[in-house]
Amino acid sequence: MELDIAWTVKWLQLCAEAMAEHRVELIELDRAIGDSDHGENMDRGFQAVLAKLADGPPETPSAALKLTAMTLMSTVGGAAGPLYGTAFLRAATSLGDAARIDPPAWAAALAAARDGIVARGKAEPGDKTMVDAWTPAVDAARNAADGGNADNLAVLVAAAEAAEAGAVATDPMVARKGRASYLGERSAGHRDPGAVSSALILRAAVEAAA
Amino acid sequence: MTVSLVVVSHSEKIADGAAELAAQMAPKVLILPAGGTGDGRIGTSLEKVMAALDKAAGGDGAVILADLGSAVMTAESALEFVDDPAGFLLADAPLVEGLVAAAVAAEGGADVQAVKRAAEGARGPAHPDGPLGQQLVAEGPVTGQGPDFTGDFELVNQAGMHARPAAKIAGGLASLEADVTVNGVDGASMTALMTLGAGKGSVLHVEAWGADAERAVNYVGGLVQAGFGEP
């Protein structure tokens, strides 16, 4: 499967589906350690992305990601808006005008997205945030792409699986950033909702290529 | 032209209210609120912030004040999209006190850097690090440099030092090339001046350093002796 504009649009549509499907789960996770709006906000944000894509389909993967960035930043409302917005924006910049994404370009786009999230939110690995899903995803995508003969799907799968494991690994962590950090030790024993939604986004990328 | 101000808050009411409050002290300054989401919920909207930045663009620059973490992130994100990001400075300041201090400084003709400093100097007296003014004073003896000009002026107006006189002093000093202390606090900080609690008959001891030190002392003296135009 080519990772072209058709794949990109399908990926974003599947992101919207995943956020709608996991809306309540994300709300529950966020209620435990945050302000319980993450599911609502992500669902609203990606529904708005769907509407924008329907208005006028972009021509390149990069243009589609930039449109997503702007839309999320304007509609999500919570901290996830600027964080995901910056992630999609940096990924768009990293891809440039390319019509197709190859494995090294995907790994580079994920790294740019992760760096954007870190720059915007100032969180580090281990702070119990979405960075804990993105960082292993970036490493896994790079490793998978490094051989030079990896196929597209293998790189997407590697990133998604690493992000999912990264989200699970936030369970015992004590939050040091975001609303959950106000809870201190009591934040341990809960999964970080931002790490979960990040893993959903990277899993949708796999499903769009399957 | 004066420096413009952009207020980014999670709440539309907070942004509008803070702008309204600051405008009372600074009628000439363009203060643009960008609070809440596009559909009236609590949160921040890139679109609203971008619209405010667009209106504030050009001219003498603009200073942005934001309330909680994600408002700061939205403001930073918006700056990635503007044509001239160098024209905007994001102040790390308490929203209401910082905005009022920034507005007063802008009204007095301060440049964009000085307006940002005024906002950041507006931490309340309860701040654990203490008001900025106290830190400035501590530097005097350390460097061994006495003030370039000093003056002592008795408050003659009935109400003494309150918000309007403090705004006039701080606003005027912010546009001068001088570091000024009044009874040991930062003269360019309206909130610091108000904490002096100086009533009628109190003497203000003014010390000034820098190119405009003499003008700064005369400026404060002129205002005090004229009773700030009050009875």
Automatic annotation (TrEMBL), chain A:
<dbReference type="InterPro" id="IPR004007">
    <property type="entry name" value="DhaL_dom"/>
</dbReference>
<dbReference type="InterPro" id="IPR036117">
    <property type="entry name" value="DhaL_dom_sf"/>
</dbReference>
<dbReference type="GO" id="GO:0004371">
    <property type="term" value="F:glycerone kinase activity"/>
</dbReference>
<dbReference type="GO" id="GO:0019563">
    <property type="term" value="P:glycerol catabolic process"/>
</dbReference>
<feature type="domain" description="DhaL">
    <location>
        <begin position="6"/>
        <end position="207"/>
    </location>
</feature>
<dbReference type="GO" id="GO:0005829">
    <property type="term" value="C:cytosol"/>
</dbReference>
<dbReference type="InterPro" id="IPR012737">
    <property type="entry name" value="DhaK_L_YcgS"/>
</dbReference>
<keyword id="KW-0418">Kinase</keyword>
<dbReference type="Pfam" id="PF02734">
    <property type="entry name" value="Dak2"/>
</dbReference>
<protein>
    <submittedName>
        <fullName>Dihydroxyacetone kinase</fullName>
    </submittedName>
</protein>
<dbReference type="InterPro" id="IPR050861">
    <property type="entry name" value="Dihydroxyacetone_Kinase"/>
</dbReference>
<keyword id="KW-0808">Transferase</keyword>
UniProtKB/TrEMBL annotation, chain B:
<dbReference type="GO" id="GO:0009401">
    <property type="term" value="P:phosphoenolpyruvate-dependent sugar phosphotransferase system"/>
</dbReference>
<dbReference type="GO" id="GO:0016020">
    <property type="term" value="C:membrane"/>
</dbReference>
<dbReference type="InterPro" id="IPR039643">
    <property type="entry name" value="DhaM"/>
</dbReference>
<dbReference type="Pfam" id="PF03610">
    <property type="entry name" value="EIIA-man"/>
</dbReference>
<dbReference type="GO" id="GO:0019563">
    <property type="term" value="P:glycerol catabolic process"/>
</dbReference>
<comment type="function">
    <text>General (non sugar-specific) component of the phosphoenolpyruvate-dependent sugar phosphotransferase system (sugar PTS). This major carbohydrate active-transport system catalyzes the phosphorylation of incoming sugar substrates concomitantly with their translocation across the cell membrane. The phosphoryl group from phosphoenolpyruvate (PEP) is transferred to the phosphoryl carrier protein HPr by enzyme I. Phospho-HPr then transfers it to the PTS EIIA domain.</text>
</comment>
<comment type="subunit">
    <text>Homodimer. The dihydroxyacetone kinase complex is composed of a homodimer of DhaM, a homodimer of DhaK and the subunit DhaL.</text>
</comment>
<comment type="function">
    <text>Component of the dihydroxyacetone kinase complex, which is responsible for the phosphoenolpyruvate (PEP)-dependent phosphorylation of dihydroxyacetone. DhaM serves as the phosphoryl donor. Is phosphorylated by phosphoenolpyruvate in an EI- and HPr-dependent reaction, and a phosphorelay system on histidine residues finally leads to phosphoryl transfer to DhaL and dihydroxyacetone.</text>
</comment>
<dbReference type="InterPro" id="IPR036662">
    <property type="entry name" value="PTS_EIIA_man-typ_sf"/>
</dbReference>
<feature type="domain" description="PTS EIIA type-4">
    <location>
        <begin position="2"/>
        <end position="126"/>
    </location>
</feature>
<dbReference type="InterPro" id="IPR001020">
    <property type="entry name" value="PTS_HPr_His_P_site"/>
</dbReference>
<feature type="domain" description="HPr">
    <location>
        <begin position="148"/>
        <end position="231"/>
    </location>
</feature>
<dbReference type="GO" id="GO:0047324">
    <property type="term" value="F:phosphoenolpyruvate-glycerone phosphotransferase activity"/>
</dbReference>
<dbReference type="InterPro" id="IPR000032">
    <property type="entry name" value="HPr-like"/>
</dbReference>
<dbReference type="Pfam" id="PF00381">
    <property type="entry name" value="PTS-HPr"/>
</dbReference>
<dbReference type="InterPro" id="IPR004701">
    <property type="entry name" value="PTS_EIIA_man-typ"/>
</dbReference>
<keyword id="KW-0418">Kinase</keyword>
<protein>
    <recommendedName>
        <fullName>Phosphocarrier protein HPr</fullName>
        <ecNumber>2.7.1.121</ecNumber>
    </recommendedName>
</protein>
<keyword id="KW-0808">Transferase</keyword>
<dbReference type="InterPro" id="IPR035895">
    <property type="entry name" value="HPr-like_sf"/>
</dbReference>
<dbReference type="InterPro" id="IPR012844">
    <property type="entry name" value="DhaM_N"/>
</dbReference>
